[in-house]
Structure formats: C-alpha cells, structure tokens
Write a structure and sequence with these properties.
- This is Hydroxymethylpyrimidine/phosphomethylpyrimidine kinase.
- It holds the Pfam family Phos_pyr_kin.
- It catalyses: 4-amino-2-methyl-5-(phosphooxymethyl)pyrimidine + ATP = 4-amino-2-methyl-5-(diphosphooxymethyl)pyrimidine + ADP; 4-amino-5-hydroxymethyl-2-methylpyrimidine + ATP = 4-amino-2-methyl-5-(phosphooxymethyl)pyrimidine + ADP + H(+).
- GO terms for molecular function: ATP binding; hydroxymethylpyrimidine kinase activity; phosphomethylpyrimidine kinase activity.
- By secondary structure, this protein is of the alpha/beta class.
- It has a domain of 174 residues: UDP-N-acetylmuramoyl-L-alanine:D-glutamate ligase.
- Helix content is 37%, strand content 20%.
- Strands 3-2-1-4-5-6-7-8-9 form a 9-stranded mixed beta sheet, sandwiched between helices.
- The structure holds adenosine-5'-diphosphate and ligand LCLJCK34.
- The site of ligand LCLJCK34 has 18 residues, from strand 1, strand 2 and helix 7.
Amino acid sequence: MVLPPRIPRPSHDGSAPVRVLTVAGSDSGGGAGIQADLKTMLALGAHGMSVITAVTAQNSLGVQGAWELPAEAVRAQFRSVADDIGVQAVKTGMLATAELVETVAALLADLPAPVVVDPVGVSKHGDPLLATEALDAVRTKLLPTATVATPNLDEVAQLTGVRVESENDQRRAAGALLGHGPRWALIKGGHLPGGEAVDLLTDGTEEHWLRAPRHDNRHTHGTGCTLAAAIATYLAGGYEVPQAVTAAKDYVTGAIAAGFPLGAGIGPVDHGWLREGTD
Ligand SMILES: Nc1ncnc2c1ncn2[C@@H]1O[C@H](COP(=O)(O)OP(=O)(O)O)[C@@H](O)[C@H]1O
Ligand SMILES: Cc1ncc(COP(=O)(O)OP(=O)(O)O)c(N)n1
C-alpha cells in the first residue's frame, strides 16, 4: 500500500492549520457526505469545515429520507466560515436541487480558492441525491467554477451523454466534460470491470492515468466523497492538481482496502486507516 502524505500540522506556535470546506449533504450513517469529508480532512492533517445542504436518513442499506436546507441557510453557513475563518479549498458534494446548485455556484464564483466538484447524482444503492432538473445548472453554473470535477461513470453519462465502457471512452468523456468549463476532469473508473481501478485526470493537454489494485471488498460506501475531499485537502495544502489527485487516490485506495462491515448492507471505507497504518 502506498502511504499518502499528511499535511504538516501547526506546532502549537500560534499558526493556523490548513482549512478546507465541504459543501455537501449529511449521511447519518457516517460513511459518505459531510461525515466522510470531515474524517478525511482530519486524517490528512487539515481543519475541516462544513456547509450542510441537505440531511439524509441513511445507513448501510440505502437512503430512507432526504431533506434539503433553504438556500438562505446554505448562504449563511458559507459566509460564516469564509468571512472569518478563511477557506483554502472547497469540495462540493450532494446539492440536491437546482436552487442549491445555483446558490453554491454563485458563492464559489467569488471565492479565490480551488474548488473540487463531485457532481453527486445517486447513491450506491440507486437513491437520487440530485433532482434531474438540476443537471442543467450543474453543467452551466457549477462546472465552470471547478478546478477539478470528479464524476463517476453514471454522473459523466448524465452530464455529457458519453457512456464509458473502456479507457478510450474515459478520454472522450473527459473531453466532453471539459467543454463545460472545469479546469481538470477526473473520470473515475471505479465502476469499470478489471483488476485495476483506473481513473483518468486530464486538463485537455496533460493526461494522467491513475491505476490502483481493485480491492475485492464490498464495503465501499463513501469512495467518491472520500476521494474528492482528499483532493481538496491536498489542494488546500498547496499541492498542484496532478500531485493532489495522485496522493488522494493513494488515500482512498487504502481506505477501500480497509473498508469494514457495519449494518446489514454495504459498510464504509475506513477513513482512519492511515493513522493505524503508521502508528
Ligand atoms: N474496489 C475498488 N478497489 C480500488 N479502488 C476502487 C474500488 N472501487 C472504486 N475505487 C476507486 O475509488 C475512487 C472513487 O470511485 P467510484 O467508486 O467510482 O466513485 P463514486 O463513489 O462516486 O461512485 C476512484 O479512485 C476509483 O477508482
Ligand atoms: C449525503 C450523501 N452524499 C453523497 C453520497 C454519495 O457518496 P459516494 O461517495 O458517491 O458513495 P456511495 O453512496 O456511492 O457509496 C451519499 N451516499 N450521501
């Protein structure tokens, strides 16, 4: 297992830690969403902050209910942290509705910090986390704010119409996604068959193929959230995009290898694997 780097922590000399913000939904089961993001940020050495967009009743079997917050509550949370504490990178996840997508995109457009957009559409169990009517706002408002956009295969098909079944399709999907304005596209191949989990990162000029052994572990709840939150954390720590994504891939690969059963269904990845691996 490749051990990803940790962001250096302040040494109690009065300096502030690296600060990362997640704008996402709450997963009551603790494996995905806000909870996954904050655990990832802590594991990698950063101070995590949250803007909650929606609350889900969720466990290892699926999503039993979802309630979005008013746009005003999302704006207020964002201003509270951005105007006082300061944000060095942002990750967006579940945004639920077109109104919240537009609200968040407007807030990000004025923020001088890198943005990782995980265009969350449905959960692993097939539960919808984004209204279909919101797809257009994701394309036209949210993707242009992204430093990196990180769709899985279903999400990139919904956003671009490109169905991915091969590495060559990943390249075509990335090109189509870049047409909507993110600086980099990361097309995650987690749902492709094969002995490796292969993701393509490209800005249209450089191509980075990120390959990791596929772990035969059904406890993979939260993989996409964890990867995107780790990328944001490394960007906040000053890494360039290819280095941030490579380190984040190493972190999520270790977390998937250590994923554990909880409840009767799909358990979470282990956000704490790095600490245990190096203590
Ligand atoms: N079984 C697995 N073994 C190793 N890596 C995986 C596995 N499943 C997914 N990944 C990786 O996890 C990350 C998240 O991808 P994916 O699961 O496709 O996202 P999402 O949760 O959005 O569907 C990607 O880097 C992908 O390659
Ligand atoms: C509240 C919330 N946000 C996002 C997701 C999807 O998370 P993801 O990391 O893609 O993991 P899976 O659900 O696919 O396992 C979620 N479930 N809940």
